[in-house]
Amino acid sequence: MPDILSVRPNLRGRFLGATLLFLLVAGAPLQAQARPARTLVSVNPLGLPFKYVSAELEQKTNTFATVGLSASFINIGDGSYASLEGKLRLYPNEEAFQGFSIGLGAGLTRVSEDVYNGNTQSDENRSNTSPTIAVIADYNWMLGKTKRVVVGTGVGAKRIFGDSDGFSDVNFAYPTARFQVGVVF
């Protein structure tokens, strides 16, 4: 039985043209779709005037959860805190990086304090590095046409499991606050 495309050459051109048109039209939406965001990198832009530095790296594990790493340093009076933590955040709205999240953190915090013995200069610097746990509640907004810019705020509490003896101006359980600006890619 002869092939229909070989019998009618005019039909062959139409068939090839229709196939080419279909591939062009069907492929256009695939090129326009952005790759889903999997990683968030953010920093605290307000930290410099307040002697506070923080940065976060967050990786989406599925639609409702992320794991991440957070590093921060704050200098308050005669004391300072330097912290490195791993974090797990759950997004109840099932849109990771977007909206409300609750989470847990665990890591290490180095607490330092200058000690004065009646002088105006520090006589000694005490420090202690100890494990920590934290609870966090955050809210992120994804901004822009492509939803790649993130502004986030949050509150929480942290507990340092260390020896507070000898420290006078340093708290080993304290509230935390978060303000981050970053990008997802």
Describe the structure.
The protein has an eight-stranded antiparallel barrel with strand order 1-2-3-4-5-6-7-8. Strand 6 (124-143) and strand 7 form a beta hairpin. It is α+β, with helices and mostly antiparallel strands and 185 residues long. 15% of the residues lie in helices and 55% in strands. The relative contact order is 0.15. It has two domains: 1-33; 39-184, Porin (Beta Barrel), CATH 2.40.160.
Notable traits:
single chain; 185 residues; alpha+beta; Porin; 2 domains; eight-stranded antiparallel beta barrel; 2 helices
- Give me the CATH fold name of the largest domain: Porin
Question: If you average the pLDDT, what whole number results?
Answer: 83
* Rg, alpha carbons: 27 Å
CATH class of the largest domain: Mainly Beta
Strand order of the largest sheet: 1-2-3-4-5-6-7-8
Q: What order do the SSEs take from the amino end to the carboxyl end, as H and E? A: HHEEEEEEEE
The rounded distance between the terminal residues' Cα atoms is 56 Å
In short:
By secondary structure, the protein is an alpha+beta fold. The chain has helices at residues 4-7, 9-32; strands at residues 39-43, 52-62, 65-76, 79-90, 99-115, 124-143, 149-160, 173-184.
